[in-house]
């Protein structure tokens, strides 16, 4: 037998059982157990049901938070959104690339789900809108401009929006440079040197409100498709998902990873995984996800290898909970019992 | 013409190895040592029972398709049964694992029994996660967009994309359940082969 085989099989240090045997009906026990668990699951289902909060759509987002939507859309066009600067597996940037010492596992498999935020989220969908010469002229103007000019336009347009978002977050008086038309729901940004951006953003918002952007982001080479990566990442760059999550106590600092909507237990088995996100150095680290995953990988390996870890494998003999588990057996073999 | 020799038959070899390792009376015993008498033993079979209810309710949901439970009361009921059986599965499995830890259940060459049990728990976690992100509701949107960063950070996002519903649904209804069931079968067969771990002898407490 190999060394690994000897390690896994181990030496049988248990005494062969020479005592009595009791009748045991394995199949009957299994059937009763399935019946009891099924009944318990049915009772819990009848009493508590299960959560099913409707998903958010881009159309809802653009109607409920139009300024936030436009702020996000212009950041996608400008290449400054979370997704635009993410890195692998979506693009070649580096803002969200995590590392531990010299290890950058996020880069190992490259860009497997390419996303060009300006093209996929803004220019591409707008190009599908027919019979709008002003829009197509604005697209042509934007695309033919040098990159520096494009940046100048988007930054000029984005600055008042960012000031608005900051004021909103800090609960300060909102700047009057950004406003929403109550009747149409369209966003107006007062800024100079924005080139064709107001036309593009106005069309983007209109397309989103009509539901066209939801469909456009799901379009792929084939008719049927099941990959929601593009619309989900676009929405995650914005504020609607986060707003709803905060209301449902699902944010990271609210142990959100293991919770679910409503008062349901959620994935409670992820408590240890979620715990690391609440403590330093994981909490503040830019590579927090990777550090947590490495920590959980290490703990998982230790969990599997419990039979071989000195100290951990001996603990059950030192804390005699086993005496409680086998109390009937120990009582039966005690000298007093035999007497 | 004489019958072909069976000595080199792969089928015979597999049968003999199988019956040798697990004779029928060991595979399906009708008696157990008297020390197998504690409430803690219930949690092992309860884990298997929960898995059976998960597979049963999940099969009904799979038969009707992933959107069915959103627009019918019956569908929502089976989704609830599926969810609660998963909660029960993890609860009884954790109690079972703790019980086995305090019994030092890896003694007597049973390390593989512990290891297959531990790996089953670890594989069940992504199996449940893929279910949460396949729900097609707000929970799925939020959990997938939040958990993707951890997957991407270790590089698995390239082939385990939480925001790809189709891929996650495949993982949830086929690949990961197959792994869990395979591990559970291996675990149970190992338990049957080695028998239930005997009590720690009181005069042999020192060392491990």
Distance between the termini of chain A: 46 Å
Helix run count of chain A:
18
Q: What Rg of chain A is obtained from the alpha carbons, in whole angstroms?
A: 30 Å
Order of strands in the sheet with the most strands of chain A? 2-3
Helices and strands of chain A, in order, run as: HEHHHHHHHEEHHHHHHHHHH
Provide the low-confidence segments of chain A as ranges: none
Number of strands of chain A: 3
Give a quick account of the main beta sheet of chain A: strands, pairing sense, barrel closure.
2 strands, antiparallel
Task: Specify the structural class of chain B.
Answer: mainly alpha
Percent range for helical residues of chain A?
40-55%
Characterization of this structure:
The complex is a heterodimer of chains A (339) and B (208). With 339 residues, chain A is mostly helical. Chain A has a domain at 58-247. Chain A has 18 helices and 3 strands. A two-stranded antiparallel ribbon of chain A has the order 2-3. In chain A, strand 2 and strand 3 form a beta hairpin. The longest helix of chain A has 23 residues, at 26-48. Chain A is elongated. The two termini of chain A are 46 Å apart. Chain B has 208 residues and is mostly helical. Chain B has 2 domains: 39-103; 106-194, no CATH class. Helices cover 68% and strands 1% of the residues of chain B. Chain B has helices at residues 10-21, 24-27, 42-64, 68-71, 73-102, 111-132, 138-153, 165-194; one strand at residues 31-33. In chain B, helix 3 runs antiparallel to helix 5, helix 5 runs antiparallel to helix 6 and helix 6 packs antiparallel against helix 8 (165-194). Chain B is globular. Classes of the chains: A mainly alpha (339), B mainly alpha (208). At the A-B interface, helix 1, strand 1, helix 2, helix 5 and helix 11 of A face strand 1, helix 3, helix 5, helix 6 and helix 7 of B.
SSE layout and pairings?
The complex is a heterodimer of chains A (339) and B (208).
Chain A: H1 3-9, E1 21-23, H2 26-48, H3 58-64, H4 66-78, H5 105-108, H6 117-127, H7 133-144, H8 147-169, E2 178-180, E3 187-189, H9 197-209, H10 212-218, H11 229-237, H12 240-247, H13 271-276, H14 288-304, H15 315-318, H16 321-325, H17 327-333, H18 335-338
Antiparallel strand pairs in A: 2-3
Chain B: H1 10-21, H2 24-27, E1 31-33, H3 42-64, H4 68-71, H5 73-102, H6 111-132, H7 138-153, H8 165-194
Helix pairs in contact in B: 3-5, 5-6, 6-8
